[in-house]
Amino acid sequence: MPGPLAGLKVIELGGIGPVPHAGMVFADLGADVVQVVRPGTASDPASVLNRGKRSVGIDLKVEGAARLVARMAGEANVLIEGFRPGVVERLGIGPETCLAANRRLVYGRMTGFGQDGPLAGRAGHDIDYIALSGALASIGPRTRPLPPLNLVADFGGGSMLLVVGVLAALHSVGESGVGQVVDAAMIDGSALLMAMHHGAMAGGWWTAQRGTNLFDGTAPFYSTYETADGKWVAVGALEPHFFARLLEGLGIDADELSPQMDREGWPGMRRRFADVFGSRTRTEWEAAFAGSDACVVGVYDMAEAPNHRHNVARGVFAEVDGVRQPAPAPRFSATPSSGPGKVPSPGEHTEQVLSQLGFDPGEIRRLRQDGIIPD
Prior knowledge:
Layout: E1 9-13, H1 18-28, E2 32-37, E3 54-57, H2 65-74, E4 78-81, H3 87-91, H4 95-101, E5 106-111, H5 126-133, H6 151-176, E6 180-185, H7 186-192, H8 195-203, E7 222-226, E8 232-236, H9 240-250, H10 266-277, H11 282-288, E9 296-298, H12 309-314, E10 317-320, E11 323-326, H13 350-356, H14 361-369
Parallel strand pairs: 1-2, 1-4, 2-3, 4-5, 5-6
Antiparallel strand pairs: 7-8, 8-9, 10-11
Helix pairs in contact: 1-6, 2-4, 5-6, 5-7, 6-7
């Protein structure tokens, strides 16, 4: 089966990070994603974010390119782009132009700071957006905030918010017959991901001070510990009955420690846990907690994770052309995805896509002569 989005036509105006990731998710779920790339873009078989897409080379700065993109938009359901505000308008392929060509089009826009506001036109990266949304200040040790890779703004608050917004807008098209613009901003999305923590702060059990909270690594029963072989285990024994299983697995009597939620006793509890975890290897601890609800598992790096027995059993990872990568998710009972597709060469499908749009060989030849598409 081709996936639940089979038949959906998506145009992706090439970029980096969140927009290609969103395009990958659409392709994983069965959509026909056509990525527009600049002619001469270097081929990268390891660019997992481009898997399963078709690639068309178009120089968007050449006169006539805008008409070509508008014609493509006229046959699509979705267009997604990740340029700074105003750029696509200057190129002649903004929402007004594309929605005029197709009133049912969903036009998804991905930016860092959004389409409006004092910082809308400024450059930034994941770390900048989560800095202003309140997320970064809550992550890391007490001494300084640390970025959690570029997962929170680029992908969690960016790509996935764009995907949700586009799918919601498509539902609206089904009801009204009219498309719209989706303004997905990474600063908005990363703030949205902190909803629970804002509620926790209002409820009095979360503070703005890093290094004092349950989920920031401060609580000794929600943290990581080094093992005797230099590897690590992760502990998430929040609930009292899970905490009891943790102590049981570690061979520690509860009377040796302060009460679980006594924050004054956390430093001593952490030292005790660290000593015990440091006495055995990761494999030994995994065996000790096998079948237990202590919420203790080994910490696996990117090279190890695909080989863990649970990930193997579920098919969490796949391999395409020698590149190990996460498999499509989530899973569907009636319309399962067919698996990750191959990564196309830049511009590989230019003639194929244009022919399907109704361009005859003479028109395609003239587009080449005008420098709009590659030779």
